[in-house]
Amino acid sequence: MNNDTLIPYIGVVTDIRQDTPDVKTFRVVSPDGGKVFEHMPGQCAMLSIPGVGEAMFSITSSPTNKEFMEFSIKKCGCLTTWLHAMDVGQQITIRGPYGNAFPVETDLKGKDLLFIAGGIGLAPLRSVINYVRDNRANYGDVQVIYGSRSKDDLVDYQEIIDEWMADPNIEVNLTIDNPQEGWDGHVGFVPNYVKELNPSTSKTVLVCGPPIMIKFTLAGLKELGFTETQVYTTMELRMKCGVGKCGRCNIGNKYVCKDGPVFRFDQLGELPDEY
Amino acid sequence: MLKISLDKLDKLFEAISASQTLYIPVDREDGAAEYKKYESGMKLSSALNTLRSAKDFFFPQTENLVDFKMEGKNIEVIDVREESEDFVIFGVRACDARSFTILDKVFLAEPVDSYYKNRRDHGTVVTMACARPAETCFCGTFGIDAAAPEGDAACYSDGESLFIEAHNEKGQKFIDSISSLLEEGDTAKLEAVRAKTREILKKLPLAHLTTDNFGGDKLNEYFNSDKWGELSESCLGCGTCTFVCPTCQCYDIKDFNTGHGIKRYRCWDSCMYSDFTKMAHGNPRLTQLERFRQRFMHKLVYFPANNNGEFGCVGCGRCLSKCPISMNIVKVMKALEVK
Amino acid sequence: MQEAMINRAKQLLADGAVNRVIGWKRGEFAYDITPAVFETAEELEKEFVYDDFTAANVSKYLVKESKKEGKILAFLKPCDTYSFNQLTKEHRVVRENVYIVGIPGGPKLDAEKIKAKGITGILGVKNENYTLKIDTVYGEEIMPFYEAILDKCATCKSKKHVVYDELMGEEGDVLDSNRFDMVEKLENMTAQERFDFWRDQLSKCIRCNACRNVCPACTCEKCVFDNPNSGVENKAPADSFEENMFHIIRAFHVAGRCTDCGECSRVCPQNIPLHLLNRKFIKDINSLYGEYQAGEDTTSRAPLNDYKQDDCEASIVHERGVE
Q1: Cα B49 to Cα B10, B116, B205, distances in angstroms
Q2: Residue A43: inside a domain
Q3: Do B68 and A246 touch (CB under 8 A)?
Q4: Of A4, A8, A248, which has the smallest distance from its Cβ to B115's Cβ?
Q5: Is the CB of A252 less than 8 angstroms away from the CB of B79?
Q6: Which of A106, A134, B214, C194 sits between 20 and 30 A of C26, alpha carbons compared?
Q7: Distance in angstroms (rounded) separating the CA atoms of residues A92 and B75
Q8: CATH number at residue A125
Q9: What CATH number does residue A93 fall under?
Q10: Are the beta carbons of A247 and B115 separated by less than 8 Å?
Q11: What is the model's pLDDT at position A253?
Q12: pLDDT below 50 — which residues of chain A?
């Protein structure tokens, strides 16, 4: 019988990085080394510990990374708690890639890009940012606005400092919600910071974060003159199959796992308000 | 058309079951009909339809997807799939036969569900025309002719003989396998029976129900309708409608620890259940109104939007007779249509 | 009765004594009645129905409805009043927010019983002196009324309303019911026969949860079977053990609180006689702790929630298990 997408592959966790107090980043390779499968930025994978649970996570590493995949996972439920407790060397099951991707090879090509992320929302965007950095000639200006509750809650902080901020070809603006000792950067919520920075409306925006942040960021962008057709986001709903059959992530005639998770806001506007 | 005398049905069933597994609807002690694996002596039920739909044959309520063995940090994935045996489902009604083409649109779409396809490939659907439709029947609403059911092969009774014809290669193969029992028969009486059935179909109380006001372009018209509150107010949030429905196909995937391994299985799920969309950090459908709306919007708007106007209902009427509070798609359609 | 009920409801609405009415709404056919809340006289006139098919017990809806603003009029049949009382006792309904009009109960009809006779294409059902005249697309059919009554009505325990603010029609009595006959029959079986009986029944279960969701005793905010951390949360029986245990555990959970309203069996799409599990508990409680009827009052202490020095010893379980 042919392979079935519901039958997972094995992945080995080769590195675990404590990113923030409640976020760890897991590096996954196939048992023979190398990546379990290829993906595009914004796509997801189903990770599981059999007997514990299975859930969809966005792949945070860039497809340009040829050695491994990475997943930044926040501890919030049964499975994620288990994943946070495991050690390097643990095998997990992995299947995918699922969903569409950010249109890095089509609509985003040649565009000035503005990434706006809040908290763990950086995870899916990191894949795009690093993809863009590795294919820098294909894109215009690149700006990243990223905020979190505190300095300690900034995911991938080390990479941001060491690589992104050291990269003269992209502009990085960080912010945290409240003043903190040892932080001399910007303080304030992401939506407000976006307005302060007043980015050019020529940019195409990719936004991801908590629903409330997305809501106010979108409103702020509109105030600045951006239109919904310029703004992309990625969504999260409960999923089981990953291929648009189990029915769980159905909104209107779309399945987030298959037709998403990346949507432009004008596309989202056509869907019933049920997410 | 080829036929066999109705009093030779036993012989027909014996012949079919000699070469492959045969399922026929039989009467249960409580009067309800259900599909059973044929064994000598079983009598074909005369009930209009089985209590549970025939979808179980291709999409069973539970099925094992894959096994895992856990040892230390290692996981072994065990593919438990086996080639299905060949089987015949005999006596499927026109509504249920159509439900298979609807399920196909989901499970056979890329990426193909190999579990479903396996059974679909090995199953032959032999349908049976209806002669005594019930008041709850409204298959005609969805363009289904109860007197001329689809399926790989179809049967029609004129009260004396069972006529049988193939609709495709699989059906022809089935007929070839029993051809020694069949003889060419005159269909004049059968045509009269069919004409009478069609007359009755026109007289059924739901004969005038149409889908004219529904379809993929009706999202905004109905999603925000103020009727949903009233329609869903007494919904118990059980899964009866979903589980007796031949076209409902939402499922859950769960793990079961057997003590010496993990079985990952798939089971029917219901959008009517409170935890269907629940995540660790929230739930986009918080009340029964939203869950209730989802089920009907999916059948009447979302499914047709994705499937060239085909609706996610076949008018079998099971939900009409089985919903504990008698709320159903017919009442929903009629209520939504009133502006 | 239906006319009188509509008139009384309209009156109470007009007086402002209540702002809503919970009852039953007409369907497409003679028998597909839906419980509904009515807010206006027009709605009542157009859709309110009370006839031989209005079997649904509306008491459980009052858990939610009685917490809304204003008073709601509830028409309760005798059996429904037991459920309501029990819910009052468990502080699940707000008694003051419900105006109860006691109405005569069944026997109510079971459309499935009519259909089981092979009668189909039903356009109308009339009860003429306890003979059902059934109009169908295939012509008129007749059958005796009592052959079509619901199982729960055939074993009715009481025609008496145990709670009401006013009564319509004549009050009845607690009946000398035959409701434990089938339980006794099961008790007299051998363990194997009994096991086979229940396996045969419970293996039909499709785990739709209709029995639980309709049950007036099942009002937990979070059911153990919906809790992913409980270890028993499953939408489908993973094996026959779970198939059995779902119903047995549920029967345990409602033991001593189940009023025997019979809704579980009425709504079961697979016709499993689930009420027999509950009745076994009721019968045992009666024999072990003395006669007790859940829902009969709102003040007495339930035997399983109470301790008395002469309570039977726990060893009774072991002793009874020895055949």
Answers
A1: 20, 23, 18
A2: yes
A3: no
A4: A4
A5: no
A6: B214
A7: 7
A8: 3.40.50.80
A9: 2.40.30.10
A10: no
A11: 93
A12: none
Is residue A268 in some structural domain?
no
d(CA B174, nearest CA chain C) in Å: 31
A186/A126 same-domain check: yes
**Chains with at least 3 CB pairs less than 8 angstroms from chain C:** B
Instruction: Report the domain count for chain A.
Output: 2
Does a cis peptide bond (omega within 30 degrees of 0) precede residue A31? Answer: no
Say if strands A113-118 and A142-148 run parallel, antiparallel, or are unpaired. Answer: parallel
Say if B118 is an interface residue toward chain A (CB within 8 Å).
yes
Is the ipTM of this structure higher than 0.90?
Answer: yes
Evaluate whether residue A258 is within a structural domain. no
pLDDT of residue C238: 63
Give the one of B70, B216, B253 whose C-beta lies nearest to A51's C-beta. Answer: B70
Note down pLDDT in tens along chain B; length 339 residues: 999 999 999 999 999 999 999 999 999 988 899 999 999 999 999 999 999 999 999 999 999 999 999 999 999 999 999 999 999 999 999 999 999 999 999 999 999 999 999 999 999 999 999 999 999 999 999 999 999 999 999 999 999 999 999 999 999 999 999 999 999 999 999 999 999 999 999 999 999 999 999 999 999 889 999 999 999 999 999 999 999 999 999 999 999 888 889 999 999 999 999 888 887 777 889 899 999 999 999 999 999 999 999 999 999 999 999 999 999 999 999 999 987
Query: Percent of chain C at pLDDT above 90?
Result: 80
Confirm or reject contact between B213 and chain A (CB < 8 A): no
Q: B-chain residues within 8 Å CB-CB of A54? A: 253, 255
CB atoms within 10 A of CB B312: 27
Which chains lie within 8 Å of chain A at 3 or more CB pairs, if any? B
Q: Same domain for A63 and A120?
A: no
- Contact state of B275 with C228 under an 8 Å Cβ cutoff: yes
Within this chain, do residues A127 and A228 fall inside the same structural domain, yes or no? yes
Cross-strand partners of B279: B282
The answer as to whether A28 is a domain residue is yes
Structural domain range at position A30: 9-98
The model's confidence at residue C231, banded by pLDDT at 50, 70 and 90, is low
